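Why show two proteins at once? Because comparison is the fastest way to build intuition. When a single record is shown, students tend to memorize it. When two are placed side by side, the eye starts asking what differs. So, the first record is below.
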Amino acid sequence: MFTEETNKSAPPGSASKDELLTWLMEEYGDMVLRLAFTYLKQRQLAEDISQEVFISCYHHLDRFENRASYKTWIYRITVNKCKDMLRSWTYKNITYKDMLVSLLKSGSKSTEAQLVDREEREAIFEQVLNLPVKFREVMILFYYEELSIQEIAEMLNLNTNTIKTRLHRGRQALQLKMEGVGIHGTV
């Protein structure tokens, strides 16, 4: 197996398929789960999608061509599986049950300040989750997953200008939603 000293930015050199899958899960598992949650808004479904993503990765590792990074490849699989789920009859007939727990951790602030910051982040993220999918996905990928516009364009198979437009329109829609619920701040 891998030690804590393993270079997390590159896959192990001559690893077996099982070792490579383990590395991919350790490296990208949390990000896949977060991304799936942003689409599906339900933790259990996000966990199911996460498992499906890595099962799919395992079955297709021998076909990975290194034209993209593992990160982009896994994100694209995740996005596609989430979109498939959103189109499915099952998903359309499920009620949302889970509430979002803070994605970001606060630094060394007072307990009161941490609570206020957490509530603010959760309120903003909740508004992001209420955006239409085409705006929500680029906002999540750009701001929360910190992907570049180029990486998002490749992942979603869209033009970079389309991504920029969706980011701009998403920010505008988010600003309107935030003003509507009384959350003030910069987007």
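Second record. Ask yourself what differs from the first in the token line.
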Amino acid sequence: MLVDFKELPSEARIWIYQSNRPFTEAELPELKDLLDTFLEHWTAHGQNLKAGYDLPYNRFIVIGLDQNQASASGCSIDASVHFIQGLEQKYSVDLLDKMNVTYKQGEFVAHKALMDFKNMAKQGAVGPNTVVFNNLVATKGEYEENWEVPAKESWHARFF
């Protein structure tokens, strides 16, 4: 069952998929339709899942699930990963590679391979106050409070 992401409780489980490029204005309406359709029919053991999504910076897909009504099962998580893989193919984007870092340079959102980011840190091109996207947050509340943080306050701190 599709709901507005804003209606999900702060303890809702989330999954964040970062794209290696922003989705274009032409791609966004179709992407939203695909997400609407998938989440409207997403189930676990035959029970509808109460879920919503957010598309921050037109670059991330954040799927939230209210587990108070029903929790995701192995099969439903597999279905969501399969759906994301389909989006990767359709839009020629990388959404599942966790070896990439997305961060801000001013208001610009940049995306680099983890090793490139590590080298940039050594060279001083990014620093402990560089705002990074901590995609390891697990709940909507953490997403709202701790997703965009200085690198020194996330797992990225090990590079400084």
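One difference worth noting in the second protein: The mean pLDDT is 95.
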